[in-house]
């Protein structure tokens, strides 16, 4: 027997927190009876539905994708643009991206149907680091890099300190390649942080997510996570068995 919200999360319906809201707001039925009490336990023979749509427990899937630029980080797009899910072949389960990369940003993106793991990976509480490489307009000064390491304020909101490193620069073209490592996941965060210290981003790529890298992958390629990688991700997010 498992708690209902955990079963919903593992079925890919929603994160556990979102599943709790579905339950308490009366969207979930167990054996045709509306259940609103958190902590309700269900077994393999119980019939569960959300808004009268039966759910089935799917086998968990954990994918790593090298997202190209010009692809949206959603499962479906109203504008009919190519999505990251379109790039994943031979996976019958319904998967979705963990967080997002901008349309014009490339790099490492995780996809899964494990709502609980996805929720924890994107929650700042667990401080899973993400490393980006940006080409910026101008050559950042030591003072600008120090500001990023101390944390900057963007539109009145404080952003946590980032690890920074100047990788290269071109004085003639007045551009530089800068590496930033952050553990938050706010919308357009890296672009906003660099713009806040005077160096707008021209091109951006996420090269690392926690300990995971793009090694061996070309743009558009994907692969399943290895068992030891999944185990380490769960350890990082407090889900280890």
From TrEMBL:
GO BP terms, alphabetized: enzyme-directed rRNA pseudouridine synthesis
GO CC annotations on file: cytosol
Keyword presence, Glycosyltransferase: no
Enzyme Commission code: 5.4.99.-
Record carries keyword Transit peptide: no
Pfam families in the record: PseudoU_synth_2, S4
Family annotation (PROSITE patterns): PSI_RSU, S4
Boundaries of every RNA-binding S4 domain copy: 2-59
Coiled coil: none
Gene Ontology molecular function terms on file: lyase activity; RNA binding; rRNA pseudouridine synthase activity
The entry's keywords: Isomerase, Lyase, RNA-binding
Family assignment from sequence similarity: Belongs to the pseudouridine synthase RsuA family.
Name of the protein in question: Pseudouridine synthase
């Amino acid at each position: 027997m498992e708690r209902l919200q955990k079963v919903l999360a593992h079925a890919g319906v929603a994160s556990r927190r979102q599943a709790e809201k579905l339950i308490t707001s009366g969207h979930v039925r167990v054996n045709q009876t509306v259940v609103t009490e958190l902590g309700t336990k269900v077994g393999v023979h119980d019939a569960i539905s959300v808004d009268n749509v039966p759910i089935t427990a799917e086998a968990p899937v954990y994918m790593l994708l090298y997202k190209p630029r010009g692809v949206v980080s959603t499962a479906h797009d109203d504008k009919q643009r190519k999505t990251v899910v379109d790039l994943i072949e031979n996976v019958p389960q319904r998967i979705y991206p963990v967080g997002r990369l901008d349309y014009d940003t490339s790099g490492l993106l995780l996809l899964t149907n494990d709502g609980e793991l996805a929720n924890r990976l994107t929650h700042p509480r667990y401080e899973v680091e993400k490393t980006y490489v940006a080409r910026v307009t101008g050559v950042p000064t030591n003072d600008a890099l120090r500001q990023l390491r101390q944390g900057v304020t963007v539109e009145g909101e404080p952003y946590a300190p980032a690890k920074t490193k100047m990788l290269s620069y071109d004085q003639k073209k007045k551009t530089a390649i800068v590496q930033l490592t952050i553990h938050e996941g706010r919308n357009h965060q890296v672009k906003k942080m660099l713009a806040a210290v005077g160096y707008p981003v021209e091109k951006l790529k996420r090269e690392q997510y926690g300990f995971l890298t793009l090694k061996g992958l070309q743009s558009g390629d994907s692969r399943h996570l290895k068992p030891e990688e999944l185990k380490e991700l769960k350890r990082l997010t407090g889900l280890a068995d």
